[in-house]
Design goal:
The structure holds 2 protein chains of 2 kinds. Chain A is α/β, with parallel strands linked by helices. Chain A is built from 9 helices and 5 strands. In chain A, helix 1 packs across helix 3 and helix 3 runs antiparallel to helix 4. By secondary structure, chain B is of the alpha/beta class. In chain B, the strands form 2 sheets. An 8-stranded parallel β-sheet of chain B has the order 1-10-7-6-5-4-3-2. A two-stranded antiparallel ribbon of chain B has the order 8-9. The radius of gyration of chain B is 19 Å and the shape is globular. Chain B starts with a helix and ends in a 26-residue tail after the last helix. The chains are: A alpha/beta, B alpha/beta. Chains A and B meet through helix 1, helix 3, helix 4, helix 7 and helix 8 of A and helix 2 and strand 8 of B.
Chain lengths: 233, 337
């Protein structure tokens, strides 16, 4: 590339800069995203506005193209990594400024299953959408989920499984929640390659999410419903 | 190299592989979340029964109970130091079943993905992937498999690492990837990409192909993609028997034996040389597949429309091959310098 093609982020006006950050997120350019976030902070954008308009806006495009089979896991991992760079700058500032929180999610891969690619994507995309995410990692027994629900008090429980040998374990967790009378205190979302919507329903989850983008959309929907119910009640 | 699989590939018009391992073991009482590989020690009789089921249903090839047998996967069950032993046992049980079958039956040493993402996106290096695969390959070899068989792979890098491990173990090998995301692997790899990769690998696989994924129709589209590449390496079709449903505490795949019989014939006509099933494919399915393959004369390669009308539609409009691959929705504003 010649020097003429060089884009100086600080020379772009706000609107152009945000558009450029969308492109840079799409291309997974972490340093450029960090620089963009810092420039917007210097221009006295509120941290929450940077999160929603620049980062979440950009990740929404990534999420849609992932959902539609245009982008695949490697590109999304790179994009999420770039977003994480920006989030690392914003996180402490968001806490200071008391920015609104969309919701909280506890997420983990079920017992016997090592696969965390999809789960990590969901976690990153959820953070990108403004959720607080507590990641329990892989190989979670029912006890580990229940402890986290107790200590973290999330709005949403997310479970992931990639194997036909582990997906039934999700039902074990949900059944235990029912036994303990806490099932309805949480929105339960499930995902993983071998699953489908009917399976999600059959095991008693609130929804099956085909991919990370759908997980974010579904989580937002449930949060909106929850707020509406609270308002109505 | 002379080995049983090469010989059968040369002698026969098609070969039938086996069906599901996980689904079958569940039906025998495996608990969700437990390691199937530990049954090679704890319940060798059930593993022998699993293999015998495939042999009795007419399979020419069956895969060993060692899918999760890499160190990375066994670690989850605190069994990471038993990778060699558990794979060797899986192979030995298989060898015994195959040797008394009364006809040539290939014991294929199954190896699944490590479950980790390779560099630069993840932390698994090429060297450690090769090392883990090699360790398991040596166990399978010591147990007497005829061929190594890596399956359900998503990343090209991991597939290549396996080829290198097969070379180190000095064993012939086959490999399949799982095309489960809009007709591509999770990592975006297309059927055309895989065929091109297989041509270039050293050693070349005896056969390559697709397993698992989303339903039998998608899998056949992938096979047509291999065919379009013009490769002369034989290819493998191991599709799922429909999609999983939950019934009374059990996972049940909704594909009937009749559907899988149609799928098997379509797979052969599409150019697959080794035809089997994956998740949900039980011995009833295998029997129906074998009968259909024997009784139905070979026809021309089916079109996508014919596949859709016979066994159902596809999960996505495109599979990323040819000219109709979906393009990025956003026009790029400009390239960065």
């Amino acid at each position: 590339m010649s020097d003429e093609d060089e884009i100086i982020l600080s020379e772009l006006d706000d609107e152009e800069l945000v558009q450029q950050m969308f492109d840079d997120l799409y291309d997974g350019l972490k340093e450029e995203i960090e620089e963009g976030v810092n420039i917007l902070l210097e221009r006295e954008w509120a941290p929450y506005r940077i999160l929603t308009e620049a980062l979440v806006g950009g990740m929404t495009i990534v999420g849609k193209d992932f959902r539609d089979g245009i982008l695949f896991v490697p590109e999304v991992l790179l994009a999420a990594n770039a977003m994480k760079g920006g989030m690392a700058i914003l996180k402490p500032l968001l806490a200071e400024t008391g920015a609104p929180r969309v919701g909280k999610m506890v997420i983990g891969t079920v017992k016997g299953d090592i696969h965390d690619i999809g789960k990590n994507l969901v976690g990153m995309m959820m953070e990108g959408a403004g959720f607080e995410v507590v990641d329990l990692g892989i190989n979670n027994a029912v006890e580990s989920y229940l402890e986290a629900l107790e200590s973290e008090q999330p709005d949403i429980l997310g479970m992931s499984a990639l194997l036909t040998t582990t997906m039934p374990y999700m039902k074990v967790v949900i059944d235990t929640m029912v036994e303990q009378g806490i099932r309805d205190d949480y929105v339960v979302l499930v995902g993983g390659a071998p699953l489908n919507e009917e399976f999600g329903k059959a095991i008693g989850a609130d929804a099956y999410c085909r991919d990370a983008a759908v997980a974010v959309e579904t989580a937002k929907e449930f949060m909106a419903r929850k707020h509406n119910q609270a308002a109505a009640g | 190299m002379t080995n049983l699989l090469s010989k059968l590939l040369a002698d026969r018009d098609w070969l039938m592989a086996d069906g599901a391992t996980g689904t079958t073991l569940f039906n025998m009482g495996l608990s969700s979340g437990d390691a199937p590989e530990l049954w090679n020690v704890d319940h060798p009789d059930r593993i022998a029964k699993l293999y015998q089921g495939a042999v009795d249903a007419g399979s020419d090839i069956f895969l060993t109970n060692s899918f999760g047998g890499t160190r990375a996967r066994l670690k989850l069950h605190g069994a990471q130091d038993r990778a060699f032993e558990l794979s060797k046992l899986a192979a030995e049980i298989g060898r015994e079943v195959a040797d008394k079958a009364g006809r040539p039956v290939v014991v294929a040493g199954s190896v699944g993905p490590t479950g980790e993402i390779m560099v630069p996106m993840g932390s698994l290096t090429h060297e450690s992937a090769v090392e883990m695969f090699h360790e398991q390959a040596e166990g399978l070899k010591a147990g007497g498999v005829d061929v190594l068989w890596v399956e359900t792979i998503s990343a090209a890098e991991e597939f290549k690492a396996f080829a290198e491990a097969a070379k180190l173990a000095d064993m012939p090998w086959c490999g399949t990837m799982s095309f489960d995301t809009a007709g591509r692997t999770m990592m975006g790899f297309t059927s055309a990409d895989m065929a091109a990769m297989a041509e270039k690998l050293d050693p070349q696989p005896l056969a390559f192909g697709a397993n698992c994924g989303v339903g039998a129709s998608d899998l056949l589209r992938t096979v047509l993609g291999f065919r379009a590449s013009g490769t002369e390496i034989p290819f493998i079709a191991k599709g799922n028997a429909g999609i999983p449903k939950y019934h009374d505490g059990h996972i049940h795949y909704d594909g009937t034996p009749e559907l899988m019989a149609k799928y098997a014939v379509l797979a052969r006509d599409a150019g697959a040389k080794i035809i089997g099933g994956c998740c949900g494919t039980q011995t009833d399915h295998l029997r129906a597949m074998k009968a259909a393959l024997e009784e139905t004369p070979r026809g021309p390669a089916p079109t996508l429309d014919q596949i859709a009308s016979q066994i159902g539609g596809f999960s996505s409009d495109s599979d990323g091959t040819g000219d109709d691959a979906p393009a990025a929705r956003r026009p790029r504003r400009r390239a960065r310098g």
